[in-house]
Structure formats: structure tokens, C-alpha cells
Amino acid sequence: MPRKPNILYRGGLQLLSSPCPPPHRYSYIARPYATGSDNPAADISWPSSPTFTPYELFQQDRRAAYSKSRYYEMVKVYHPDRPCNGHPLCRDLSPEVRLQRYRIIVAAHEILSDPSRRSDYDRFGLGWNLHPSTAQSAGAYDPIFSNATWEDWERWHNRHQRKPETLVDHRTFATFVILLTLLGGALQASWITQLHNGYESRVSEFTEESARLLKGRKDNTVHQMRSLDARVEHFLIRRDPSGCGLKEGEQPVYEKVLHSRKGSGASAKAEGAGNQKAPDNDSGEADGGGP
């Protein structure tokens, strides 16, 4: 029979003395975490058949749920940006074949990871047009997940743009640019030559004109100042055109030289005039002495 609790009265309060249950002990259970692959040493070799299916590529059962573990392991091996490090599955492959297999892996993953695309493939075989010999995707352009190189990303970004039409061949355009450059250089060289010749002709004309002017002045100076007195007078006049001298003691010298020169010049002119009148008088007397 079950044991009845004892009823105790303490301070007018009714207490029930029942056995207390033992404290609950919490047990700690370690939670296992998911890893990229439960079996890292799983077989990820490439199918030997040339017409394999996505299920055969990932060794996936058609009725089982899709598991990404084999996909991750194969991406680690065939991704073109990862080093091979002597892996037996990729060390003998060329970069082109490795990139081709990576795109096939991505295409198979997209089919099996999407329920609708997987259903279409199971029912009608849609979406799996990728063969090892062609390396072409199901659509006109590869999906974003298969962009492995810079060229793939460029094609993906330009998938909605029309291919630009080439109006002129690149070689023809380059030849035209080169000929245009040569023609411009020839015209510029001709213009520079003409400019240089014109400059030289103007310099030659200026030199000849200066030489003629200097020669004329030299001849005039030599003709006017044949004597020493004339040269001294010319020097004094050029030094002080007023004829008074620049210093206090120079005025008598100026007056002596210049006034003596003027006096000799006036006497020479008077003698010349007298000589001209004498023949006139002689001719008059000859006329008066006639009959």
C-alpha cells in the first residue's frame, strides 16, 4: 500500500511531510556535428562510361535523397582554381579536361539539388545535355555556378547583350591609322622645312641690309674725314654737340679747334668766290675793248 503522508501541526499551520523527490540529474549528451564527408576516403573516381547520368556521377540512388558530400569532394579535386598537389585523379589531366569535368559536376549538382529539375530529368530526361566529348551546358549559357574562369564570368555578364558587329577589319583599320600617321608626319616635315627656309631668307636679307648700311656709313666717314683735323673735329662734336666742352678747361680747346676750322672754311669759300668773279671781269674787259 502507498505510504500516507504524515500531517504535522506547527504554529497552527498544517504541513504535509512527504518524502521529497530526489534532485534531477541532467546528463550532457555530446551533439555530433555534420562534416563535409562522412567518409573522406570514398570513391570519387570519374565514371568509365561515356554516357553516364548524374546519379552515376555521384553514385546516388534514384529513390534516395540527394547528398552533397560527394559533390563537395569532387569539387575539391576538379575545381580549376585549386592546386592539384599530385592528386591521383587530376595529376594526369590537362587544365582543359579538368575545367570540363568541373562544369559537368556543377551541371549534375544543379539537376539533383533542385526538386523540380530533378523531376523533369527523371520523367523526360531534360537538363542533361552535357557529354564529356562536347563540354557544353544545357542552355545557351552556363549557369552562374559553373563560372570557373574569367572568360566564363564575362560571357555570363554579357549573355543578354548582342554581339557587336565588326564594321571594319582590325588589320584594315590599323593600316589606315599607320598611313594617316605617315601622311601627317610628311606634311608636318614639309611645313617645318618651308618655315626654316623662310627664316633663313629673312635673316640673310637683314644681314645684307645691315652690311650695306655699315659700309655706307664707313665710306661717308672716310670721305668726310680724310685729314686728322677733320677727325678731331668730328670726335669733339660727337662728344659735345653744343661745342662748349663737358668740363671747365675744355671750352678753350673746343673754341680753338672748331672756330679755326670754321674760319679756314670761310676763307676757303671766299677765295673760291673771288676766283669765280675774276674770270667774269676778264671777259667783260675783253668785250669792252672791242671796236
Structure write-up:
Residues 258-291 are annotated as: Disordered. It comes from Aspergillus heteromorphus CBS 117.55. Pfam families: DnaJ (PF00226). InterPro entries: DnaJ_domain, DnaJ_domain_CS, J_dom_sf. The chain has 291 residues and is mostly helical. Among the domains are: 54-157; 182-223; 225-271, no CATH class. It contains 8 helices and 2 strands; from the N terminus they run E-E-H-H-H-H-H-H-H-H. A two-stranded antiparallel sheet has the order 1-2. It is rod-shaped, with a radius of gyration of 62 Å. The termini are far apart.
Helices and strands, with pairings:
Layout: E1 6-10, E2 13-17, H1 54-58, H2 69-78, H3 95-113, H4 115-124, H5 150-157, H6 170-224, H7 228-239, H8 251-288
Antiparallel strand pairs: 1-2
